[in-house]
Amino acid sequence: MTGSLILLASVVLSAIILGVSFWYANEIRRRYIKRAKEEANRILHEHREKAKKKAEEYLKNAKEKIEEEKNRLRAEISKKKHDIKVMERNLRDMKEKLKRKEENLRRREREIYNLEMQLKKREERVSKAEEDITKKLEEIAKMTVEEARNELMRMVETRAKLEAAQLAMKIKEEAKQKAEEQAKEIIAMAIQRCAASRTAEVTTTIVELPSEEIKGRIIGREGRNIRAFEAITGVELIVDDTPEIVVLSSFDALRREKARLVLERLVQDGRIHPARIEEIAEKVDQEFDNYVRQTGEQALVELGIPYMHPDLVYLIGKMKFRSSYGQNLLSHSIETAKLAGIMAAELGVSVEDAKRAGLLHDIGKVVEDEEGPHALVGASVAKRYGEKESVVNAIAAHHGDVEPQYLIAPLVAAADAISGARPGARRESLEQYIKRLHELESIAYRFPGVEKAYALYAGREIRVIVNSEQISDVEAYALAEEIARTIENEMQYPGQIKVVVIREVRAVGVAK
């Protein structure tokens, strides 16, 4: 009996233990599943948060790219507008030139008509003189045959001389007219084929910014960044209300260009503080010589010049940062080279030599260690670096300091005058240009004995016609000097003005 109870108790205890074990296992499984669900929810939540952050980051980057594209499009539109304005200004200049050409043509037609009328009157006087001579011969019918023959021969000889003189004058005028027409045609063709735009940077440079908030970083706390920038670069930095633009101001174009490069790198880098400004300015100073040399090399490539001494190339690059009466020196030199090359091709001389001389004709303006007229200084430098004698002579002779010895010399002088002296090339308005011509002529009319005065070649020369009875040959030379001195004292003008005094003696005979 006791054994049965023990067995029963063992069975019951085993069942209890088995039930407890089963319950415990189920509890553990349930808790594990619960923890697994919680972990899964946590991981899912973290991934959702990461996905949300990435989506926000992608959206932000997309907005930044869209903003950058907008800025690029704004800059491109601004450039297009500027190009359109330049084209409109060039079109207005061409219209004004055509108008002046039409006026000159009408004036020439009037002069030709007056000359024809004078010639007709002279022919009438000659015909009348012949009739008078014939009547006299009829009245003196008692003269001998020999005397009549001699009188007739003298009359025929006089008439033949007159006709020969008229024919010679006609041939001379026709040859002169053809030469002038050919020269004008070549110059007009060169101007039309060149049609170079001009840039004039005098004291300021505009730098575009990617966004308006950059201005505050450029200024810095209490203005420390802008003060450090101006102190290091030597250029004034103007920050005004104009959106996304700052202005660099300085009379030194080299400093202004370096400051522009420094500012653009600072904006691109994003770290703007005095130490960083000084660091980038030192790097720009070290790299600027290469930039100047690359600018000179680009000018050679544009003109198709194969080789030039490296020191000359460097001086050509420096011309980009010099101006003459508001005209950029490098742009003017490139345009002069193109014009000279086109005219040289028309005349069958060396196009490369003409381009080299045109590009280098003002090189003396950027040479700092020599003194004297820039034409002679430029010729000396070109000769030192192995340029041809014809190129050296063209550089020296383009302002008349020496006599031209090669054909390209007058071509370079003409191209220089075309590029630099026409209205608008040196930022001179048409009203100022016309006013200057009137002032030149009015100064000449002040002097006694002056009958007519004409300002020619865009004010580069004035021709004065004087009364031969009031002014002698010696006095004509003195009058030219007096007019030149008066122009120097009373007027402001680019380059030189040549004063030419013309004294004409006319011999008049009257047949009665």
CATH topology of the domain at 310-421: Hypothetical protein af1432
Text of the CATH class of the domain at 310-421: Mainly Alpha
Average of per-residue pLDDT values: 79
Name given to the CATH homologous superfamily of the domain at 310-421? Hypothetical protein af1432
Helix content: 55-70%
Percent strand equals 5-15%
N- to C-terminal distance: 192 Å
Q: Mind summarizing the main beta sheet?
A: 3 strands, antiparallel
Could you give the count of β-strands? Answer: 8
Give the overall shape, derived from the CA principal axes. rod-shaped
Order of helices and strands: HHEHHEEHHHEEHHHHHHEEHE
At a glance:
The chain is mainly alpha-helical. Residues 195-201 and 423-429 have low confidence and may be disordered.
Describe this structure in words.
With 512 residues, the chain is mainly alpha-helical. Among the domains are: 204-303, Ribosomal Protein S8, Chain: A, domain 1 (2-Layer Sandwich); 310-421, Hypothetical protein af1432, CATH 1.10.3210.10; 430-503, Alpha-Beta Plaits (2-Layer Sandwich). The protein contains 14 helices and 8 strands. The strands form 3 sheets. A 3-stranded antiparallel β-sheet has the order 1-3-2. α14 links the parallel β7 and β8. The protein is rod-shaped and about 205 Å long. The model is unreliable at 195-201 and 423-429 (pLDDT under 50).
Features:
512 residues; mainly alpha; Ribosomal Protein S8, Chain: A, domain 1; Hypothetical protein af1432; Alpha-Beta Plaits; 8 strands; rod-shaped
Layout of strands and helices, then pairs:
Elements: H1 2-139, H2 145-194, E1 204-208, H3 214-219, H4 224-233, E2 236-238, E3 245-249, H5 253-269, H6 274-303, H7 310-318, E4 323-324, E5 327-328, H8 329-347, H9 351-360, H10 374-384, H11 389-397, H12 408-421, H13 430-445, E6 450-456, E7 461-466, H14 473-490, E8 498-503
Parallel strand pairs: 7-8
Antiparallel strand pairs: 1-3, 2-3, 4-5, 6-7
Helix pairs in contact: 2-8, 4-6, 5-6, 6-7, 8-9, 8-12, 9-11, 9-12, 10-11, 11-12
